[in-house]
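Supplementary material to the annual report.
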Amino acid sequence: MKVDRLVALAGGVGGAKLVDGLNRVLPPEALTVIVNTGDDFTHLGLYICPDLDTVCYTLAGIANPATGWGRAEESWHALETVVSLGGPGWFRLGDRDLGLHLERTRRLATGERLSQVTQSFCRALGIQACVLPMSDEAIPTQVDTDEGLLPFQEYFVLRQCQPRVKGFVFENHACARPAPGVLTALEAAHVVVICPSNPWVSIDPILAVPGVRAGLAGKPVVAVSPIIAGQAVKGPAAKMFAELGVQPSALAVAQHYQPWLRGFVLDRQDKAQTAEIRRLGLEVLVTDTLMTSLADRERLAREILDFVTTW
Amino acid sequence: MKVDRLVALAGGVGGAKLVDGLNRVLPPEALTVIVNTGDDFTHLGLYICPDLDTVCYTLAGIANPATGWGRAEESWHALETVVSLGGPGWFRLGDRDLGLHLERTRRLATGERLSQVTQSFCRALGIQACVLPMSDEAIPTQVDTDEGLLPFQEYFVLRQCQPRVKGFVFENHACARPAPGVLTALEAAHVVVICPSNPWVSIDPILAVPGVRAGLAGKPVVAVSPIIAGQAVKGPAAKMFAELGVQPSALAVAQHYQPWLRGFVLDRQDKAQTAEIRRLGLEVLVTDTLMTSLADRERLAREILDFVTTW
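Predicted assembly:
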């Protein structure tokens, strides 16, 4: 199978790394990334899109390598001032990052759509890949917990994922439309890669956008496990699986996505689960999935492309 | 006359300097400053109060001594990012300054009033004087020019005061109320000082707030000329006088405020105008009014207090 049109579904840090790898090894303009916007929120009057920004900063080579989010060589003077005046400091916003949120918020207020703003920012940041928000409409993720429904960022950042999870609500998703370009990109795609992002709060929100699941039907879809040796590389994915009564594992991820998948990529450390994942009817690639260097990103991307090319 | 309750009316840079001098020489809690908010505006979604901030930064000792506006030791990363993404850079906003605007905008959106936010910020900045916006309601100054009405900041910053001035509109002023504290401070004041700010666009907007003129009636009011040797120390005051058909001079300023004044302070360079200003029925103090150092601010403040104490 030829792969010169690829769609990646991605959330934040882990997803952004694989997207970067794919962008580095694919021909120019071959890659479209559909990014989760379920954790977008308004804070300090600014419209903030954490996953979209992590993907763009990573593709532009300006992401903070230490945190995985925000920008490298960042200063924090504005937020320090906010806090010194008694304002909220729980959501960390660097000065350069803030500049992007200010300009995005300004443009949205003039009536531009999130997808248009994102395209313009990508051009300014020198990004060749096509980066699409899953929707131009807000589909805010609410985490249903033992303390009730919490807006995602409140659960994730303010409460540091401590409340016990019972489920998720993707508010407004049934009435929302995918952003322009999402369905046509899926239709044109030779293969779809579900990046190693949180299945519950990064990928499921994308799958919940009307038309996306139908767009995956019949496509060669391959998912990369964000769970290695029972742990999430970053974030609360493993904790969420456990609290929802599922032993966190690569197998559990494969089962989660199974209706849409043709292939699955898992880490060498989870090799023992290969047979069971094959039994789900999936083709399996076992490799090193942890991406600590740029070289790792490229290698994993190449291996995935080689894997799907044999189909 | 005893002076331990003083009200100063002030705009930006020049006014802020004299306010700082008064604050340094008066007993604690003796000073209330009523600040012009006619040039407040919303930019990048932020509610910005240039004169209020200049007064507060100056009183807190964190103003930028080079520009007169904004903060010392400032960085510009957010605005650089806005501009790099194609956004507007004409209104200069430093990162620390931005933090204050973000927090003010956030609080106003929760329903706090500008005067409450200002009081809270003053506490956080360690400011003892009572700083009041002239009103909690927007009274935007429009500059009537040969190109039509221009919002003040557009005239002042974007167009650098180039359009020819025909007059001024203080939008909404007739229906607005003074901020809580303004009228009681005027009532309790032993003396009112009109600071060396622009008469047309810094002081007149304050005088246009219903109740303020009546509050000045019968009070010992002293004004300090912002015009020295026919020039404004900073800003377009002289240009405005000229375009409105009045030769810019200390005398012209005295005539402008004459109905409310008991005394007038002018610079030694304009000494020759003393007799004519006396002929308006005003007591006159001739001294050095240019404030280049902290010592200048204190000295001028002391001289003004000595001047009015003899009344």
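The interface with chain B takes residues 44-46, 74-75, 77-82, 84-88, 94-100, 102-103, 105-107, 109, 120-121, 124 of chain A (CB under 8 Å).
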